[in-house]
Amino acid sequence: ILSHDNPFNHFLINSLFEKNQEESYLLFSKQLCNTIDQSVLQLIKEYAETGNQYFLKLNGYLMILFSDLLTAYQNYLDENSIQQVCHPKISEILSYIIENCSTATLEKTAEQFHYNPQYLSRLLKQYTNQSFSSFRRQIRMERATYLLTHTDRPIQEIIDRSGFETAYFFRIFHEKYHISPLEYRKRFTVL
Asked: Mean pLDDT per segment of 10 residues, for the chain of length 191 residues?
């Protein structure tokens, strides 16, 4: 289930491995999936019985529940994609921030797209549920972690290429991953 790139997987991975300051949750409407009740009841029944192989069965039922939720979510998105009308320039704006994350500012981005900075800030908050600086920081961190695991560039060069100040980078990196960038590189390098 976790091998695909979708919001459900991002939520699960972030919930397991990142230290969030805010409580996070997913809310599913019961109408999305008819089999949720059955999956949850099987989980509870198996947990209560603790018989042979109960842990293996629990994992199986949990996988079925997650699979049902993911399938329901994907079906919901497919059925409602026509109704999800997006601001005409939002993908261009997000692409611009991603491509220029090391130098992009709210003011420069607003100027690039001929928007007032406050309007652009509200627009980004509406479509990403993040402020400009939070979104940019996330993109910068993703770039830094990619460079850490896919190149042998010095850490200071990675920090500079990602657009961070050195001390700030080390502080937020440790807050997010609970290890140093060097340790992260050692654990997750794919070279």
From this structure: 56 60 59 66 74 70 75 65 56 88 96 96 88 93 91 96 96 95 90 61
Q: What is the 3-state secondary structure (H, E, C) of the chain?
A: CCCCCCHHHHHHHHHHHCCCCCCCCCCCCHHHCCCHHHHHHHHHHHHHHCCCCHHHHHHHHHHHHHHHHHHHHHHHHHHHCCCCCCCCCHHHHHHHHHHCCCCCCHHHHHHHCCCCHHHHHHHHHHHHCCCHHHHHHHHHHHHHHHHHHHCCCCHHHHHHHHCCCHHHHHHHHHHHHCCCHHHHHHHHCCC
User: Is the overall model pTM greater than 0.85, yes or no?
Assistant: no
Cα–Cα distance measured from residue 164 to residue 170, given in angstroms and rounded to the nearest whole number: 9
Looking at residue 117, its amino acid is: P
Q: Could you tell me the two tokens for 160? A: 């500079």
